[in-house]
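Appendix C. Worked example: NlpC/P60 domain-containing protein
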Amino acid sequence: MFKKFMFLITIVLVGSLFIYSNTSFAKEANDEGTDLSLEDYNQLVDEGLIPDDITYEEWAEANDEALFDELEAPDVLLDTGDSDLSGIDTFAAKKTFTLKKGDILVSNGTSSKGLTGHAGIAISNRQILHIAGSGKKPQVVSVNTWQKNYGIIKGQRDGKTNTKVYRVNNSSAGKAGTWASNNYKGKNYKYGFTGSKTSKNPTYCSKIVWQAYNAQGKGKSFTGIIGPYQLPNKITGAKALGIM
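Step 2, the predicted output written as structure tokens:
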């Protein structure tokens, strides 16, 4: 009788620990602003932001925050000569780099509706093209504005935000930057995930970058949607350059 009683107690304790563990995980994910629940996915489908031919698994994979931590980024800091960057201590960078047309920017600094993280493409050494999220249109911003919203200037405030920069070291990079500018700059396109991989309206941040390189024959195939953190592995020749 005593053995049966102890067995039941053990089952209850294990069950309680399991429930607590899952509750803690859900709370942690919620605290970090991440919601990858099936309910959230279904809501996005109902709102028409995500087509129903993109599965929940594909959507969740594209939004895996762990992918950002797995992306390589050397201790090299973007040199802007900007006074706002004086006293930067988030990264112990010993070297610097300058931005070039076609550079690929991947940030953990924001989450748009339906997508975790953010991406943009440099169209010059001082300008970046992107689409900020739901309700926004494609736009061009300065390097300083990007860093304040998605880069290390914001990281000085929240202790975690930064942008990892990738470069394709051939003529495809400049051509990709030009393609992005010609096809998206000033366009009245909506934000969304419907349409084909090559359609431009609606569009989303990482799709723009992938399309720019795919037009140069450098885009690798993907299924469903392509998240910002997946970009470096879906563009042929993209190498980690530094942080900004």
